[in-house]
Amino acid sequence: MSALLTKFVPRFVPRQRSFSHLILGLLAGLLIFAIAATPARATTVYELPNISGQAPQTIDAAKVLSPLNEGTLNKSLKNLATKTGKEVWLVTVRIGYGDTVEQFTDTLFSRWFPSSEDSRDRVLLVLDTLTNNGAIRVGTGLQDLLPEDIAQSVAEETLTLPVQSGGKYNQAFLDATDRLALVLSGEPDPGPPAIAEAGVESTFADAEETDDRNAAVWVIGFLVVATIVPMVTYYAYVGFPGQ
Fold first, then answer.
1. Domain ranges of the chain
2. Burial letters for 87-124: b for 16+ Cβ neighbours within 10 Å, e otherwise?
3. Where are the alpha helices (DSSP H) in the chain?
4. Distance CA 75, CA 96 (A)
5. Does residue 221 contact residue 30 with C-beta atoms inside 8 Å?
6. 135 and which of 3, 44, 105, 111 could share a cystine (Cβ 3.0–4.6 Å)?
7. Which residues of the chain fall below pLDDT 50?
8. C-alpha count within 13 angstroms, C-beta hemisphere, residue 208
């Protein structure tokens, strides 16, 4: 018996160590897969910073803008405020299900600018990166300069068309800011950018399609793990054919 154990243990211990390493590797891979497949968390109005007393700026909560372009946007917004006294605030968010970008923008506008005096000379432009839809709210003191038709065109065309047709978040906000700055400075409205609308729907994934893809990725990942782990466990103990 002692001779048998002496012969068996040296073969079993390395195999057991190899098995442990394989299991750890699989678990690490599953963790990485889970992190990569998990969708970004939705942002609520109350998670955005308090902007009281601050200069107009870009709040890129969805992290879709480059630092360089965010700096360019902030410079343009501050120049507009210094020149005209009119403030434009830009926000990117990923809104959760059950809420719309219009509802989110209404709530945020009321929270940031609670009184008619606070909101009088301010504009809020919001983009939801889950649906790639935009919304805008205009203070009462700016509605003559920025009437509803132009404001809606900025939110639904200038802002969203570049995003929906090619994921051009930086260009969308640069174009929207330039257009708003011209109009609020009393210049003629240049209109929306000349972007062909053909093919927008074919390249744009809505919230339901995004969820379906994420669910499919999770199912495939768990099926792979459920298949591989038992096989690795079996061969770790009995050995591979020919060994």
1. 54-200, 205-243
2. bbbbbbbbbeeeeebbebbbebbeebbeeeeebebbbb
3. 2-37, 67-84, 101-112, 116-119, 148-153, 160-166, 169-184, 200-203, 207-238
4. 30
5. yes
6. 105
7. 4-5, 8-9, 12-13, 28, 31-39, 196-219, 224, 240
8. 0
What is the CATH code for 54-200? 3.10.310.50
Rounded to an integer, what distance in angstroms lies between the CA atom of residue 168 and that of residue 80? 24
pLDDT digits (tens, 9 = 90+) for 156-205: 999 999 999 899 999 999 999 999 999 999 999 999 987 644 333 333 34
Output the six-digit token pair for 27.
């678990």
State the alpha helices, DSSP H only, in 38-100. Answer: 67-84
Long-range pairs of 222-229 with CB within 8 A, sequence gap ≥ 24: 225/26, 225/30, 228/26, 229/23, 229/26
pLDDT at 97: 79
Is residue 132 left, alpha or beta, with left meaning phi > 0 and alpha meaning psi from -120 to 50? left
Q: How many residues can be counted in the chain?
A: 243
Burial-class residue 72 by CB neighbours within 10 Å (0-12, 13-18, 19+): middle
Give Dmax (Cα) for the chain.
98
CA dihedral 220→221→222→225, nearest 10 degrees, is: 120
Residue 239 CA to residue 40 CA, distance in Å, equals 42
